[in-house]
Specification:
By secondary structure, this protein is an alpha+beta fold. Among the domains are: 1-6 and 133-261, Prolyl oligopeptidase, N-terminal domain (Methylamine Dehydrogenase, Chain H, 7 Propeller), CATH 2.130.10; 459-688 and 695-711, Rossmann fold (3-Layer(aba) Sandwich), CATH 3.40.50. Helix 6 packs across helix 7 (578-588). The longest helix is centred in the N-terminal third of the chain and has 27 residues, at 80-106. Belongs to the peptidase S9A family.
Length: 719
């Protein structure tokens, strides 16, 4: 089974623009790949849920099964000349930017060569692999390395191994192994393969034995789990949407049937297996509302059973233990996560009983249910800690974690009866350290897997900035302990503030390099993100988006007031939806910063949210609002949208990386943003003759390869 809450929520990662540009963590059972994968784990909150006349989700009896795609409704015809003009304009803009990039980047070759050498040195020094994750079934151990899946005996180590699967041998040399599921009797193995240039994955089912063979290949798969040894459930993905659940059998009568279809375009469907393998859950989630159906693994051919019909604003996820469902939900007041339980037979909301409620302004990062315990990974005011609940004694323990820790990743625990929980702690400037919590001993143990140099020259400071409405906004600051005159040091500010997602604060070699060179790093945990719980997200989405902008301004202002650098040495970094706040600040308060670095930025909110044919527009109305149906939303989005508010003034320099085949952030919008920004900066320069007047650099690097969500170490290094 997958590890923890992050996989219960994983479906939402494919239905936001943020995807994974700001979190390396991808908790899966044996999810290693040739190069480390970037991913993020969203929270879910905010917005409203509109009524529908049609049933939002449908369980389909077998007799209604149909594999045919729905009839496509032809789009309105456009004049052929306007299409040609639009395409020609796009091609000309793209060509112009590529030529400009080739000219500009050539000037920095010597500089980038030196930076690359430093990063490679740090990567080799601080990044280590404790070995690929292992899946143990009795005496058999499965593991993956370099695109191959191996089988060994527990007592043999890796001396005598059998190769079960090779991406290269099967013609998938450009793909990495994303996910592995072994059937309960170990007769079959399902493997998903994903290319770095594609959003979709391919699932390969292998029949194991003396000579493993390919049994079936399923394209465009998002999630999958074995219900029994020969029954596999999976969801498909198309245009960033996952709305159909299929069941395929590998017994004597092989068949594939459509089990569930989701009719509401705002909902995304995935499959999860409970820790004890008693149920598969079909999870249908929007940003604000959930619905779960149970597949009984003892009777996988029966129709799934509904746990609780979707209720406006209520999110819930399911685990199972001893004939009881453990329900992680926002039901009740306050609208933050709570752990509740109910009998399987009477699982309706009226029977949910409270087990534990989170404290105010606490973020639930992850959760894992074991046979006798439940462990919660929590964050409060930037500090990480654990809550351990004993199902036997009904006692609750709070475990403090090292103060330097900013992120954790729960490791996979296939055995739900285990007495030890393993996880890793990290920060932007601290390489991952492995820890173990023993349920029996009730203590925390640091695991010395491999000697990693300890970072001793970095100081961590946590601050609170007072925003426009008096709300206190957390800031995490890192700087070299040996640095003198911090006011004269360069400062790199990070921001995101959308979808209830935390800023990525996992270890990165480039952050440590900057610290060693005297930079100050600041992470602004503004509203719209999830650092202080679901309410923190609600306070920064839809008609509250400007609060995130006010928070960012307050954070940068406080940093300067406290002597952390000054505007002329300050840069701002953001990715994806973080580009909304970064771009908005450039328009409202350009004097606070000297440079901006944006990766696949969302800078044209208004036009994008009015294009309902784009893959994510409908789902994201709960985050940004619906400008087509609501004039108030249109005016509000227009008031902060970066593209809409560009004006002639002195802008900071801007460097943007975009991807030609990005399905989440249309390249057209980025190209138009760059053109408009350049024109505004030039107009301002031509109108003023102030002494020292300068024209900012506005540089765009369009990557032909790569996508919004995946990036290998080599590609990241080149960027």
């Amino acid at each position: 089974p997958c590890a923890g809450l992050r996989n219960l929520l994983r479906a939402l990662s494919s239905s936001v623009r943020g995807c994974s540009l700001h979190n390396h963590l991808q908790p899966m059972c044996l999810c290693s790949k040739i190069n480390p994968q970037k991913s993020h784990v969203p929270d879910c909150s905010g917005g409203t849920w509109a009524r529908r006349t049609l049933p939002p989700g449908s369980i389909l009896p077998w007799r209604c099964f149909s594999c045919k795609e729905g009839t496509k409704i032809p789009s309105k015809r456009k004049e052929e000349s306007s299409i040609i003009t639009s395409e020609l304009l796009y091609k000309n803009l793209l060509k112009s930017e590529q030529e400009n990039w080739n000219d500009v980047s050539a000037r920095y070759k010597a500089l980038t060569k030196g930076i690359k050498a430093k990063l490679e040195e740090l990567h080799n020094k601080y990044t280590f692999s404790p070995g690929s994750p292992r899946i143990r079934f009795g005496e058999n151990v499965y593991f993956e390395e370099n695109g191959c899946i191996f089988l060994s005996k527990a007592d043999d180590g890796e001396e005598n191994v059998d190769i079960l699967f090779s991406t290269e041998d099967l013609g998938f040399s450009d793909a990495f192994i994303q996910r592995i599921r072994i059937s309960p009797d170990q007769r079959y193995m399902a493997v998903s393969l994903k290319s770095e240039n594609s959003e979709e994955a391919t699932c390969v089912i292998m029949k194991l034995g003396c000579s493993p063979t390919v049994e079936k290949i399923i394209p465009n798969v998002f999630s999958f789990e074995w219900a029994t040894s020969d029954v596999l459930y999976y969801t498909t993905q198309k245009n960033l949407k996952s709305q159909n659940v299929f069941m395929t059998t590998f017994a004597n009568q092989k068949a594939t049937k459509l089990v569930y279809t989701e009719e509401d375009a705002r909902f995304f469907v995935d499959i999860y297996c409970t820790k004890d393998r008693r149920f598969l859950t079909i999870n249908s989630n929007s940003k604000t509302t959930s619905e779960v159906w149970l597949v009984d693994c003892r009777h996988p051919l029966k129709l799934p059973a509904l746990v609780q019909a979707r209720t406006k604003g209520v999110i819930y996820h399911i685990e199972h233990r001893n004939d009881e469902l453990y329900i992680l939900t926002t039901y009740g007041e306050p609208a933050e996560y709570k752990l509740m339980k109910a009998p399987v037979a009477t699982s309706g909301m009226e029977n949910w009983q409270l087990v534990y409620a989170l404290e105010k302004k606490t973020k639930l990062v992850d959760l894992e249910v074991f046979s006798d315990h439940c462990i919660m990974f929590l964050k409060n005011a930037g500090r990480l800690y654990l809550k351990v609940i004993s199902f036997l004694s009904h006692s609750i323990w709070s475990i403090k974690l090292p103060t330097w820790a900013c992120e954790f990743e729960l490791e996979s625990h296939p055995e739900h009866t285990t007495s030890t929980c393993y996880f890793q702690l990290t920060s932007p400037v601290h390489p991952p350290k492995r820890f173990a919590y023993s349920f029996k001993e009730n203590n925390l143990i640091e695991q010395a897997v491999q000697e990693v140099p300890i970072i001793t020259n970095c100081h961590t400071t946590r601050l609170l900035a007072k925003s426009k409405d008096e709300t206190l906004v957390p800031i995490t600051v890192f700087h070299n302990t040996n640095s003198k005159e911090l006011r004269r040091k360069p400062l790199l500010v990070h921001v995101y503030g959308a979808y209830g997602i935390d800023l990525n604060m996992s270890f990165k070699e480039e952050k440590l390099m900057l610290i060693e060179e005297g930079w100050i790093l600041a992470y602004c945990h503004v509203r719209g993100g999830g650092e202080l719980g679901l309410g923190w997200h609600r306070d920064g989405c839809q008609h509250n988006k400007l609060k995130g902008l006010h928070d960012l301004k307050a954070c940068i202002t406080l940093l300067h007031e406290l002597g952390f650098s000054q505007p002329k040495y300050t840069a701002l970094a953001a990715a994806s939806a973080g580009g909304v706040l970064a771009g908005a600040l450039c328009n409202t308060d350009p004097e606070l910063i000297r440079a901006v670095v944006l990766q696949a930025p969302f800078v044209d909110v208004l036009n994008t949210m009015m294009e309902t044919h784009l893959p994510l527009t409908i789902e994201e109305q709960e985050e940004w609002g619906n400008p087509l149906a609501d004039e108030k939303s249109m005016k509000y989005i227009k008031s902060y949208c970066p593209y809409q508010n560009i004006k002639p003034q002195c802008y900071p320099s801007v460097f943007i990386t975009a991807y030609e085949n990005d399905q989440r952030i249309p390249l057209t919008g980025v190209l138009q943003y760059v053109q408009k920004l350049r024109k505004a900066a030039l107009d301002h320069a031509s109108r003023t003759s102030e002494k020292g007047n300068w024209i900012p650099n506005v540089i765009l690097d369009v990557q032909a390869k790569g996508s919004h969500c995946e990036s290998s170490w080599e590609d990241s290094l080149n960027e």
